[in-house]
Fold each of these.
Amino acid sequence: MEKIGKVLISFDCEGKWGMIDERQSWIDNKLTDKNLYHIYEFILDILEKNNLRATFGFVGAMLESETEFRDKVKKLRQGTSHKIWIEEFYKKYENNSEGYFLPELMKLFKDSRHELATHGYCHIPFDRLSEEEAIEELSLVKSQMSNLGISYSSIIYPRNKISHTRILSRSGIARYRDFPNHLNINFIPKKINSLIDSLNVYKQAENLNKNSVPGGIMVHWFYGYRKMIPSSIIYKKYDNLLQDAAENKKMAHLWLHPHNLITSRQSKILFRDLCKNIGEMMKNEKLVNVTFNELI
């Protein structure tokens, strides 16, 4: 049994890469290079003010130029799954090039105490890849991280589609974020699952699993149908989660997409308040803040 409860914070850093195969006209004017850079500045500032560390899982291509990407993906396009994904990317990119390539973000993480992890090279869900394609995807990640001088050992799977775990060690990956601790009833539509789960104020913390980090819950995104949930319920849920971790010496894991804080001012405020609450609990020695690479 652990002596003190733990809290983890992780980020799916993907810009527009996460929406390659989805309609995205609604975010084209918001997920600009400038807005993305500023929201990372905001996140790092809030974490610093509350003495918090986090795990940032970056899409590899996001940290390089389009020229570098174009050269690297020539080989990837030989695989069926990658070819479809990359061709869809170029259709979107040619229409609006903002929000995909931000190598300047690495300036913000120079001498950072945060953990940098991978979120895949081009954000293609791993369950769409053959083992050979998954190996190629991870080889690009490994090469790029090495070129950037980043020592990494964790992965946050794109869209939480966990697959090909047995090949991770070949690329120096020791752990991955597990499936989210969300309600998932197969015969109920995804939106209904999400609404029911959001209303559950008795969400519990989790225990550590071998080779995986507890999946945790996403910091609520007050956007679209999710705006229907009263903020009082959301705050109560997170208060209960953190208290459960503290009282039962378990792990509370909160994760989010940085760009959600661009598209929802209410979520931006929620993130700020959550970090302040966690910081206070740490001062009172109720919780300790850890990153993925400190768990296993």
Note: The radius of gyration is 19 Å.
Amino acid sequence: MRKQLLVLSVLLVSMTVFGQKSELKTAEKAIKANNFTSAMAAINKAEGMIANADQKTKAKFYYLKGKALYQNGANSADLEKVGAAFNQLINYEKETHKAKYSNEVAKIINDLITKLATNASTDYSTALSTKKLEDYDKAAKEFNTVYALSPRDTSYLDNAALVYFFAKDYDNSIKSYKKLLDLNYTGIATVYTATNKENGKVVSYNDKKSRDLQVKLGLAENPKTVQKESRREAVFKYLAQNYAAKKMDDKALEIITEGRKEFPKSYSLLIDEANIYYAKGDEAKFKEKLEEAIQMNPTEPTLYYNVGVMNMNQGKTDEAIVNFKKAIELKPDYADAYNNVGAAIIDKTKPIIEEMNKSLSDFDKYDKLQAKQLAVYKEALPFYEKAYEYNKTNISTVQTLMGLYENLEMTEKTKELQAVYDKLKQQ
């Protein structure tokens, strides 16, 4: 009985091997006849039997699968699947130390990469010019395909992720950035370049030896070695921005928190965190993060300006004025900051006006209160004048300044500004 089972097992193995080779032979003939549909049908039949195949048969299977998918470079070929199949072959032959097909396949992949990478860069330049989402999307897909063809070149996946973001394809951008994090991608690399003597273009080389050989042969000049900085911080930044764009603020904050653990001194991630809290309507947290940013970057005027706005919203007028004046100190032509100092000063008239409304029948008290009101207007006036000096197109500033001139009985100034106001209204 055991002998019969053994014979049956041998028969089954023989039939499997025969089936593999038969299907591969069918696929090979179909590929030569450019009948790629039939080739893939045979490949699919063989795939279920390939696990226990010998090295030679397995390598041929991977090779024929890639060739069937490649379709001799037809436009209908799914290049991501082509890349997966060919890279599977190259990895397998590297693992078994028997490279029968790798050189041929590597040439096909390199030619595809060169063509697609050039197209992706060109289409990205077009997208930057047109700003059309479909142009960004086209370039992103091409960068992604280059990565599929050459998974070791993770910079192309980084490019795809960023351009998908510009295309507002947030799902694919998130998918790409998450993959970069999973791969522990940094983007740090040494780039070897030289200028081609024939056309004057800067060429990048895979290694120093290749670059130096071209220079030695007199084909290139001006060799340079450039160290690319880490892109990992930007991966966290754009991944968070993708989630924020999808209104997934809590997820965006989760990514920012993860990023800031790795990059605790990142000003960029801190500002993004502040902006997400602002988008959530959490003004207290927004202000807290801005104040943290000031500690990190004390010479940035917009930080003081925005903290001033938050103080105004919280009714802390004096603190707001201090912040706005600090912004002006750092940026003397900061029109909005001048405007807001003026607004914060005028805000002090609110209790005065309330008291005036209660004292309409008490003329002496009313007059004293009005004098206080006008004194505040005089204090605010030079800040609004400065705001107008640095931005003559802000109709709100012009309108307020015109009201101040009118209240302070500065008739000529009022008439002068009335003409400007009328003109701005017509625009």
Note: The chain has a mean pLDDT of 88.
